[in-house]
Every structure is written in C-alpha cells, then in structure tokens.
Amino acid sequence: RFVEHTLPDMSNKHEFLFLIYSPLWMLLVASVVVFKFYEDFTAETYMLVGLTVSLPCFFLPLLFPDPAEKKIPFYERYAFRVNVWIAIQSFIGNHFITHYFYNILGMRYTVPVGPWGLNGVPIVMFLMTHPYFLSYHIIATVLLRKLGLLKPITSPVSRLTAVFVLSYVTAFLETWSIAAFPHYTYPDQYLMFTLGSAFYSMFFLVTYNVFPWLDLPRPASLAHTVQSSLACGMAVMILMDTWRLALGPVMGSAAVPYAQPL
What we know:
Layout: H1 7-34, H2 43-63, H3 78-105, E1 108-109, E2 117-118, E3 121-122, H4 123-146, H5 156-177, E4 184-185, H6 189-207, H7 222-246
Antiparallel strand pairs: 1-4, 2-3
Helix pairs in contact: 1-2, 1-4, 2-4, 3-4, 3-7, 5-6, 6-7
C-alpha cells in the first residue's frame, strides 16, 4: 500500500536531495570541458564518467530515503518512480529522438565509442542524459510551484506560457553550455542556438506539462509512471515528426542520413 500524501509534502524532500546533487554533477561535467580532460578520454573513460554522474541519481534516494516512505517497497517510493520516468525519457530521447537531431539539425557525436554504442548513439549519452533531465524537471517543477502555476485554479494560458518559456530556456541553455565541447558538432551555430533550441524545446513542452503532476492527486503506481513516460515519448515523437514533414531540415543538405552508424 502507498503512504497517503500530497505532492508538496512528499516530493519536496526528494527535490531538495536532487537539487543538492545537481551542482555536483554539473561541476564535474563542466570541469571535463573547461580543463579539456576529454582530450585524453577513451570510450571506457567516457563510460566511467557517465556512470559516475548517473548512478547517484538512483543510489542517493536509497541511502537517504524519505522517513515517510521507509516502510514501503523501494519501487513504490516517489524518488524511484521519478528516476524510472526520467530513465524512460532518456532512453527515448537518445535511441529515437537523436536521429531527428541528426536529420533536422545536422548534429553529430564524435566521441570515441568503441563497443559502447547503440542505434548510432554513444551509450555514454544515455547515461549523461539522466542527470540532465532529472535536474531540468525538478527545477522546472519547483519554479512552476513557486510561481503558483501548479494550482488547479491556475489559468491554462498562464501555465502553458510559463512552460513554453521554460522549455525554450532549457533547450537554449543546454545548447549554449555544451557548445565548447568539440565532440558535439553541428553545421551552423547560430541556427543551432535559435531554431535548434526551438526544435529541442518541443521535448520539454510535453514533459514539463506532465512531470509536475505525476503524483497528483495521489501517488501513482509504478505501472502508471511507466505508461505516463511512454506516452510523453510518443507525443514528443509526433511533434518532431510533424516538424520533419512540415518544415524539413533546419540545416538543409548538411543533415546526415537517418540512423547513420558511428
């Protein structure tokens, strides 16, 4: 049985834990780029970094569980279900959505891969995406709550406007922050920062409208959590495929073939 709770009472403790961890993994990733440690990285080194930043997302809640959840199975706890929800998004984003970035934005990964690749995407990207997405969604949820936009009486227009802005800002800041990493390449920086960010923001336009309500009005089951995340992934793919069919590649002929192997 689930412990009866409301989202603000339960999730805030986990949000605080994830928010504490966020600057730590960001500092590690930033140091790799700023000090150019990547110049000596092998495929195995990248995998080690990916595991180093992603595994704590799962283990920290187990080591520091919410007191109200200690008596329920770990797979029913809010933090575990949130990690499952994010993990599914990370997999969908890398395994499927990355190929829209290849085609529409001309983006490429050039990191050493070795045997650590899946469907034309380095596995390290699957690992790295998890802390990125977890931090994004926790921060967005906190901001929406602080702005009073998670209340039932909130105007849908106000909420959607805020989510739209947060989505674009998230996409732009990530694109800008990793521009100095030479193994994440694209043909035109200006188009990537502007139209590329708009394209990427469609991902968060969907997920930011679902994630904050995952446990409202009461805790969701693990099965419901999985269904919610899979549904979001399908919605994102519909939006991005609509862009592909209606607008085509942003970078024109610079886009690489679909599912091009590394």
